[in-house]
Design goal:
Order of helices and strands: HHEHEHEEHEHEHHHE
Structural class: alpha/beta
Number of domains: 1
Number of helices: 9
CATH superfamily: Vaccinia Virus protein VP39
Helix content: 25-40%
Strand content: 15-25%
Largest sheet: 7 strands, mixed
Number of strands: 7
Oligomer: single chain
Strand order of the largest sheet: 3-2-1-4-5-7-6
CATH topology: Rossmann fold
Amino acid sequence: MDKSLLVRLCGFPATLIHGDPFVLDRWLWLRSKLPETRNAERLLDVGCGSGAFSIGAALRGYTTLGLSWEERNLRVARERAQLCGAQRAEFEVFDIRRLGERSDLIAAFDLVIACEVIEHVSDDRKLLRDMAACLRPGGRLLLTTPNYLYKPITVDHAGPFRDLEDGHHVRRGYSAAMLRELCEQGQLIVSEFAHCGGLLSQNLCGLQIKLARLHSLLAWGATLPLRAIPPLADRWLTDALHWPHYSICLEAYKPRFSQH
């Protein structure tokens, strides 16, 4: 199956529906933090997957570099960037756990984004410090990660979590206090906490996971018509029922001036 068929037909919006239903939720939050620009600010996408957010940012005027350890994902990302006309998006195979070794990336970016990445890395403190080091003074970190208080969507979401970096989560998630503590390690100032991935998105994701056990195309096809519903009603329904969102969102700022 052509992994980019819908992108050929529909352009960038199709990149947001190839994965799980949370991808769109994360992009809507990211987009609110990425005003359109003509200044070509540099953006680093740490753990970019198949590149949807790098491509989306590039189409808003940012010069983006997406990093991922998986060559297969980046082949898809490069193809989709070309199909979307995102000439400012570039991608590179790289192990983000070694980010601190890349002197060419230090203080080189106006923005760093890391969506659903840090919970996969054992040394989250080092990763946070390394991402902060990639920011120029005045730069911003935009990060999403599972909310520690989420309700498990499947049995696997309840753990157990092992300190083994095999692609699965090494920890349940984060609270605001835990993320604030990490930001202090990178000398970043927390600007805002938010949440995404509400009750409707969680149920839709659960349905997709169950159907995928039968066939991936069945899961994707059955959930596709329902994906327009969460952006319309998820926020108010989740808040009304006091249901925990799946992800916590962080915006943090690197001071322009020395703190000493």
